[in-house]
Amino acid sequence: MKKILVLASANRDLILEMDHMPAPGETFRAERYGYAAGGKGSNAAVALARQGAKVTISTCLGNDDNGKSLFETYEKEGMDTRAVHFTDEAQTGFALCTVERDGNSRIIVVAGANEHVRFSDIPEEILEEDFDAMMTQFEVPFEEVKAACAWAAKKNIPVIIDAGPALPLPLEELEGVTIFSPNETETTILTGGMPVETEADWEAASKVLFERTHAKLVVLKLGKHGTYIYDGEVGTFVPAFVVDAIDATAAGDSFTAALSLHYLETGDIMAAARRGNAAGAIATLTVGAQPSLPNNQMIDDFLAKH
Q1: Distance CA 140, CA 35 (A)
Q2: Which among 253, 268, 300, 301 is annotated as catalytic?
């Protein structure tokens, strides 16, 4: 069982299901709404736990009902919550997720307590433990991402970065990155506007990100197309599985968790990408972020059929 520290964002999600996005000034009825646990970092942590990893989650929640609900979710998922902190200075992070009939989703995030995530708040006794990897993303302050990467690099712990949301960041300041994984929009922004339409585009963008992050592997999440992996010498495209998607909200988080865990277990990045693609595809079949995240058996069953 791999032991992974996740420096995570955490949100309470409000999900609106609708036929299409309204035009300016238009009012219409959505089909339904619901609440779910979310946040890129927390989604990845939950996905890892469901897939058999031993997860220590470090995040910051508001001292409010949403924060208490999220904390209970993490405990129910079997995660180590000793590094979860509460603050009176901000509300728990919140996200409005719109899901259209064609499966497309749009997300508006209020960072809230996520801006108060501090790597230094993790108890020293936890940092002295042995971890197989550290995972994080850009929904927490970049300085804290850098601090987590520096700590991991000193201990020779693999670092996995899910490079969202899309922000123009000084990636050169990151240390010890093993896997750097942006989606299409994030890739364009992090490369200063490079396109991601063709395999030649993917290779060119991957080379830029490889040079900027010094990552061992750049893994582009290409949505319905699949995955592109660049190791500094060779780029390889791994096609996606075709499914009737309902909601793509947490597909990338599901993908990154499955790919990372399988790579840590086997060292086979191509097999890991295929498993990640399966986990991402499964996540699109259910509305909501964490409700959609599959466990190992679900991924195994999906791969057996595809």
Answers
A1: 22
A2: 253
Residue 26 lies in a domain: no
**pLDDT of 21:** 85
Give me the residues of the chain with pLDDT under 50, please.
none
Sign, CA dihedral 2-60-150-193, equals positive
> Which strands, in side-by-side order, build the sheet including 159-162?
80-87, 54-62, 3-7, 133-137, 159-162, 177-181, 217-221, 226-230, 235-239
Reply yes or no on whether 253 is catalytic: yes
Q: What is the pLDDT of residue 198?
A: 96
The side-by-side arrangement of strands in the sheet containing 11-18 is 32-38, 11-18, 93-100, 105-110
Q: Give the pLDDT of residue 23.
A: 87
Q: Is the pTM of this model over 0.90?
A: yes
Q: pLDDT at position 166, please?
A: 85
For residue 45, give its domain range: 3-21+31-305
Q: What is the CATH number of the domain that holds 124?
A: 3.40.1190.20
| Integer Cα distance of 135 and 152 in angstroms | 10
Do 85 and 59 meet the contact criterion of CB atoms below 8 Å apart?
A: yes
